[in-house]
């Protein structure tokens, strides 16, 4: 086996390892609220996650990859030694995947995005010194980690306040929920389909302008609206039901919506997090092709497919175990609250993905749940999680950077 | 393995309702206690009294459990102090009923014919008032669902007012019964007078403590 084939195989294996870890580590977080509120059984959650993660990764996943691949390092430094970039990217993947693996066991809510950023920064410093890192970009990414939970919290706070005011405050909450249902469905469908078709179908070479994409998504939304309106009519309602009974039935309406937002979260997660696995691989493949470091390389469809596929594989093999334990625990979240948290979080994640900002899905979701809590939507919250997240913020980058440095040095020792 | 779901701590509102179940069970024994007393069935007084003491103890256990789970890092949709106040109010109701049970067991106390109608009226009214308090606690789940606002909040606000009125009436009935009692003069031994006076006070205490529930819930609504 020649060196190129060896390196390509190694990069593919590292990418697969990373993708599996992303699937295993994050699926429980992304789908947890749906399983906790008993909207989905854990098997259904796995199915929804598998489909949505893959679609999200495959159709929208290309955007964030650029930031991971070339946003944070100055690739020109590697022009004379392109293979060093290959070693580095493989090192970053190994370091990040290893950290995720450990964190899954410890139950730490770490971010897959932070892990890979740490890995890239780690080998970059060894390869080209401090100057090779685009610290402005890294700072921007780090800032987005603080901003995204806050945004998730703010968004979910508003979403929950809105449904609280327009449904749960009313004398006939069920009637209002039935009326509101089609509009909510419309919104989710428009955002989802717009995310998919606008710039998303790049891989299928269907380049649509924003106007065209908007038109398509509005049509999809309108169709969904009509179907939802029809289904909403079928929900039984009786004048004699008291508030308690109506609240109970209203939560059942939100169960339907939460299935949608569960899909939405998994979709957003796939689109955001696949880059963490495939970004480095795409860089490796591009260099191996002609031995040169390019400023701009495309994201081969097969790599996105590989990343999406193994995220699904990881969540099925490992994530399923985590989900099963969650399903048995009773969590204090109802479908309406789960809906508000998921809708807010997924929207923020999707917007950031589209902007090419690699943010943490897990941390955004935590922010969203706290947002619903601040809107007096949850009976109780254990805020220890915030401490855990801050610890993971502080520990992830040093750890993955350190491991990536060691791996990179090892590569140089044996291969250079 | 854990996940971010560990942030959904166990709600203290459900154990609060379970605690109220026990308090309510205590309250349900007030009438049988006085019926037995009136029927001079002192064995039954003894038994009912023991049952009340047992129920109060069970309520205490739930209370301690809730308190020990209220850690610093728990976030509630209401002020933690107010929540604890609510729990204390419920607990005070059970304590008052227990005091009542112990008082009536000190000696074989007779019920003077002259105070019977007023006593009936007071006992019935106290039990009714306590039920209003229980019902308020059972509204908490719906109140949470409505985020302490809207139509459900109005309903609770009204019920709390109703409870306040009931407590005020209880005070009046308590006063009337005291008048009847002290009108007996020398027909009653000093010991019996003392015990009956204490008993009336404790009955009033049940209503007083119940009213605290209404007051605390109104604080929840105003936040």
CATH superfamily of chain B: Phosphate transport system protein phou homolog 2, domain 2
Q: What's the gyration radius of chain A in Å?
A: 22 Å
C-alpha geometry of chain B? elongated
User: What is the CATH C level class of chain B, in words?
Assistant: Mainly Alpha
Would you tell me the overall average pLDDT of chain B? 92
Shape of chain A: elongated
Oligomerization: heterodimer
Please bin the fraction of helical residues of chain A. over 70%
What can you see in these coordinates?
The complex is a heterodimer of chains A (416) and B (223). Chain A has 416 residues and is mainly α. In chain A, 80% of the residues lie in helices and 0% in strands. Chain A is elongated. The mean pLDDT of chain A is 85. Chain B is mostly helical and 223 residues long. Chain B has eight helices and one strand. In chain B, α1 runs parallel beside α4.
Describe this protein with a few key phrases.
heterodimer; A: 416 residues; mainly alpha; 13 helices; B: 223 residues; Methane Monooxygenase Hydroxylase, Chain G, domain 1; 8 helices; 78% helix
Task: Give me the secondary-structure topology.
The complex is a heterodimer of chains A (416) and B (223).
Chain A (H helix, E strand, L loop, with lengths): L2 H34 L5 H19 L1 H10 L10 H25 L5 H17 L6 H34 L4 H25 L12 H25 L8 H48 L10 H28 L6 H20 L6 H14 L6 E2 L1 H32 L1
Helix pairs in contact in A: 1-2, 1-4, 1-9, 1-10, 2-9, 2-10, 3-9, 4-5, 4-9, 4-13, 5-13, 6-7, 6-11, 6-12, 7-8, 7-9, 9-10, 9-11, 11-12
Chain B lengths: L12 H16 L1 H9 L3 H28 L4 E2 L4 H24 L12 H23 L1 H6 L4 H34 L6 H33 L1
Task: Give the gist of this structure.
The complex is a heterodimer of chains A (416) and B (223). Chain A is mainly alpha-helical.
């Amino acid at each position: 086996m020649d060196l190129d084939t060896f390196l390509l195989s190694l990069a593919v294996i590292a990418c697969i390892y990373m993708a599996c870890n992303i699937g295993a580590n994050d699926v429980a977080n992304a789908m947890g609220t749906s399983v906790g509120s008993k909207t989905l059984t854990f098997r259904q959650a796995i199915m929804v996650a598998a489909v949505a993660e893959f679609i999200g990764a495959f159709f929208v996943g290309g955007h964030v990859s650029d930031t991971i691949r070339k946003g944070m390092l100055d690739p020109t430094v590697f022009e004379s030694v392109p293979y060093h970039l290959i070693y580095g990217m493989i090192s970053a993947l190994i370091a990040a995947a290893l950290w995720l693996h450990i964190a899954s066991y410890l139950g730490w809510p770490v971010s897959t995005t932070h892990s890979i950023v740490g890995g890239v920064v780690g080998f970059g410093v060894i390869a080209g010194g401090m100057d090779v890192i685009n610290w402005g970009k890294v700072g921007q990414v780090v800032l987005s980690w603080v901003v995204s939970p806050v945004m998730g919290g703010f968004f979910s706070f508003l979403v929950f306040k809105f449904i609280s005011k327009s449904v749960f405050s009313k004398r006939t909450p069920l009637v209002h929920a039935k009326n509101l249902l089609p509009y909510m469905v419309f919104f989710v469908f428009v955002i989802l389909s717009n995310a998919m078709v606008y710039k998303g179908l790049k891989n299928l070479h269907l380049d649509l302008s924003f106007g065209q994409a908007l038109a398509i998504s509005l049509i999809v939304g309108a169709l969904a609206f009509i179907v939802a309106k029809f289904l909403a009519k079928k929900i039984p309602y009786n004048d004699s039901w008291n508030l308690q009974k109506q609240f109970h039935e209203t939560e059942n309406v939100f169960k339907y919506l939460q299935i949608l937002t569960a899909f939405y979260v998994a979709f957003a997660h796939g689109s955001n997090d696949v880059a963490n696995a495939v970004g480095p691989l795409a860089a490796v493949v591009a260099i191996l092709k002609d031995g040169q470091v390019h400023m701009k390389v495309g994201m081969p469809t097969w790599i996105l497919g590989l990343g999406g596929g193994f995220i699904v594989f990881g969540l099925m093999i490992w994530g399923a175990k985590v989900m099963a334990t969650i399903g048995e625990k009773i969590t204090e979240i109802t479908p309406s609250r789960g809906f508000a948290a998921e809708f807010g979080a997924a929207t923020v994640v999707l917007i950031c993905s589209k902007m090419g900002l690699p943010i943490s899905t897990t941390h955004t979701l935590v922010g969203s749940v706290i947002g619903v809590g601040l809107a007096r939507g949850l009976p109780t919250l254990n805020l220890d999680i915030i401490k855990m997240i801050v610890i993971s913020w502080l520990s992830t980058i040093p750890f993955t950077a350190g491991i990536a440095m060691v791996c990179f040095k090892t590569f140089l020792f044996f291969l250079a | 393995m854990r996940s971010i779901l560990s942030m959904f701590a166990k709600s203290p509102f459900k154990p609060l309702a379970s605690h109220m179940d026990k308090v309510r069970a205590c309250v349900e024994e007030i009438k049988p206690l006085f019926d037995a007393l009136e029927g001079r069935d002192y064995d039954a007084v003894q038994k009912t009294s023991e049952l009340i003491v047992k129920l109060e103890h069970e309520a205490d256990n739930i209370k301690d459990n809730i308190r020990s789970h209220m850690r610093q890092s728990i976030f509630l949709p209401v002020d933690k102090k107010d929540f604890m106040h609510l729990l204390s109010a419920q607990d005070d109701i059970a304590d008052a009923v227990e005091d009542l049970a112990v008082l009536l067991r000190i000696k074989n106390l007779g019920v003077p014919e002259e105070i019977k109608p007023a006593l009936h009226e007071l006992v019935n009214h106290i039990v009714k008032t306590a039920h209003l308090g229980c019902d308020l606690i059972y509204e908490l789940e719906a109140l949470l669902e409505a985020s302490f606002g809207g139509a459900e909040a109005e309903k609770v606000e009204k019920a709390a007012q109703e409870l306040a009125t009931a407590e005020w009436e209880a005070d009046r009935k308590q006063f009337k019964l005291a008048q009847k009692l002290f009108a007996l003069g020398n027909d009653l031994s000093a010991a019996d007078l003392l015990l009956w006076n204490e008993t009336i006070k404790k009955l009033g205490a049940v209503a007083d403590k119940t009213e605290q529930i209404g007051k605390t819930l109104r604080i929840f609504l105003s936040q």
